[in-house]
Amino acid sequence: MRGLRERSGSIAAMKSGLRSACLLLVLATLAGPAHAQPLPEDVLALHWHPATADRARNRTLAAAAWLERSGDPADWQQTVEAISLRLQPAMERIGPVRVSLGDGLMAWLVRQREVNLGQSGNGFPQPGLGGIGELLEAEHAAGELARKRVVAAYRAEAVWSRAAEALGEEAAAGIEAFWAPLLAELDGDAGNGSVAAHAREQAERVRALAAASSEAERIRIHDAVLLAEARHAWETGRLLDSVWSAFEALARLTQVDEPAGGIAAEWSTWLESIEGEQGAELRLVDVDLPVVMALLGDAADYLASPGHASQSAIAELADTYARLALFAPDLAFYLDQPVREGVRQVISTCNPDPLLVGPLPREVFERCARNLENMLAGDLGTEELVGGAQGPFAAEFLRRELGLVSWQRAAYLDGHLNWLLEAQCQPPEWINVLEWSLLADHLVRWVSQRPVFFTGSGWRDTVDRLAEQMRDQATAHAEWIDCVTGRGSSRRDPVVRLIARHRAALLDVENLLLEARSSFYENATRPGADIELDGPADQVTAYRPQDLVIGPCPEANTCGSRVALPVSRALLGLFPNAFLLADQVGMGELHLCYDQVRWVERSMEPARRSASRVANYFGRLSFDLVGTFAGEGDARTVFRYRLTDSETRHYLFGSADEAILGEDCPIERVGRSVASNLPEDHPGLVPNRLTYFTSTPTTPEAELLANWDQGAEWRDWFVTGRRVERVEAADPGDMEVAVQAELADLVNRRERQMVAPLINPPRSGDADPLVLAMSRVADTAALLRRMLELHYPRLIRQHAPIRSMLAGEAGLVTRDRVRLLRDQGVAASRMPELGLERAERLSSAWLDLPEALREQGQRAPEIDYSLERLSKLQREMGQ
Prior knowledge:
Blueprint: H1 20-28, H2 41-46, H3 53-69, H4 76-90, H5 106-114, H6 117-120, H7 132-137, H8 142-167, H9 171-188, H10 193-211, H11 215-235, H12 239-253, H13 260-273, H14 279-285, H15 289-304, H16 310-326, H17 332-335, H18 341-348, H19 362-378, H20 383-386, H21 395-401, H22 410-420, H23 433-449, H24 457-485, H25 494-524, E1 549-552, E2 565-566, H26 569-572, H27 577-584, E3 589-606, E4 614-630, E5 635-644, E6 649-655, H28 658-661, E7 673-677, E8 689-693, H29 700-707, H30 714-720, E9 724-729, H31 733-759, H32 769-791, H33 793-798, H34 800-807, H35 815-823, H36 831-847, H37 851-856, H38 861-878
Parallel strand pairs: 1-3
Antiparallel strand pairs: 1-2, 3-4, 4-5, 4-6, 5-9, 7-8
């Protein structure tokens, strides 16, 4: 810490770690005049350390309010602490937001685009530290106070120097004691070295800013503070804060010529150096943030150019603001709306006649001011500018209204939300916030040109009335939110209620997707299928084709057999896994048949005496079991197994002939006659010549029927391998490749079929329950964003945890995010689960916010800026 100077000399600089007790003893011995003692640097650092910044700035604001009120040294510490304590609840409605002075400046940006910057002489608008006490007494002034709190960090040195002067001799000890509790916190945060170091570096810059002797030096140092803030926020992952700091800094640089070019070059170099960094993280906060960064880079390049192209830079910054604050592609998207023609005409009446020579007459000033006043007072609540609170509220009308800037449809959106939530509350009346800000800013600029024309009490009353108009609107909105929130233990603010509806719609989508997935599976697979379409081609399956029987193979040698044999699950297991999978998904059909039915190991024995010429034939039955897979246009053999009976059968009675013995299936000989001669010594009772007929004591078919699933149970032999020879087996590798391709195709078809209702808006008369359920999901997500834009604007603009859930890639599920998830390969059935997780994250982030904020809302930053301008005008008119 830098030591404080005594009148007779100076104390050597202290170590950076704070030792409050020792420092108090030193300060108690100081005899120098208070105004000569700079504020300890660590006290300035408190204003920039995230753990203490808000409280430190509140204390400095409170000191400024005390100075403005009286600056009475008696009980000053209690007074300042009391004001600081009042500031804390007043600021609750800001939430955990690092307020940027760039938020709310739409009117200023529009005006800067329309005038010659070199002749405007307006500078960057920022609030003074006056009027704090009045704002504490007013309702809904959190935004104005928050803007002053930002300025307090820059002016802490000056405020406390004035306080020290007011306190006199004992100032140093009293001020140090006042800051001691917060200083102890900063000293205790030594473990977070980079953050504390950044805070102290900012303190050094702010001290240098207070001591700067020229405007150019102040511009340079102020810009250095913002650049350091932007860099530190970027490095610590606070990307949205970094973007807002860069925006404010570049907006400031548009108002100066020298040395803006050199300063802007630093921004251009830095923005170029981080180009492409953390692109994914930026899109998680807001899918438009990479575009915003590109616009900021272009603006910096324009300002750094030799010509200092401020006008081009302003145009880029205006479009940046549209994306950051209005969620619009550019500012022209709103400003060029035909419904604004009335506002444009009123503003155009204030443009001077180009043929006029000399100063504008007083009546021109007064007429323009009256036109602006009349428009501000009563013509900004039309249906064209804010929508109709009474609907119609059908989904197709909502989607049409959602295509416009939210402030242009504010009354309609509140009315729709009121209807959707079945709230018995009267929606508040709306005045178009953006138009009111534009016109109020124009009025202030106009009146400020000739304040002497507007010194009467009537104009002061007009300004008061305009300010009160917006305060009344804020009150009405807070009362409406409170009404929608409900009463007693069942109080749920509109955002919580919308999240609940969003969840319910997601659950409906989840159930319908499960039904659609099941239906697709049933249509794409055979009965009994157990294949996992999302699995690999080598997945193990227990599937077996149903109603399959074994018959003779086509054009096969079946030795007269035509019997159909039953199969078993074990027998079907002979098919390789890949073929079973292929059968399930309809790539072809599995078949079993028998072939090569014949008698083997045959022998012949005379049936009678050798002279009879007849014989009995014996052999073992053999046949092939063939498994095939019939695909489109062809069939392939998967396996061929050959079974040979273990028993010898008497299969033929016929002529004793070696040629017959050589036949493996002499079935064609059955029924043929066989002539034979009796022995010569036969009794002679019958003729000497007898005729026999060839017959089959048993047939292959009979043997199959008797022994397939009973008797010898040949069917099981194929499973056990007993007396079974594998003749042929196909390699399943190529089938696995084909199955994998088929599975991928089926998954793609399923996903296209399931995703289509999720990404396509319903058509008129569409009755598909999935389309309608997804419409409810998308509509509630859209309404949540619009609700926050209108009633919690600082949150959605500057609080990354909230903005990311509504505008980031991983935000609430909408049709656009379904497309993104589809492109990332996420299954449609998984999307509702992801949506529910995201809704839970939003709910958690929302419920972490102060209750007063959630149940009362916020006022638009554009209104805070305009009221600030009107307040300044009031002070000027009162002088």
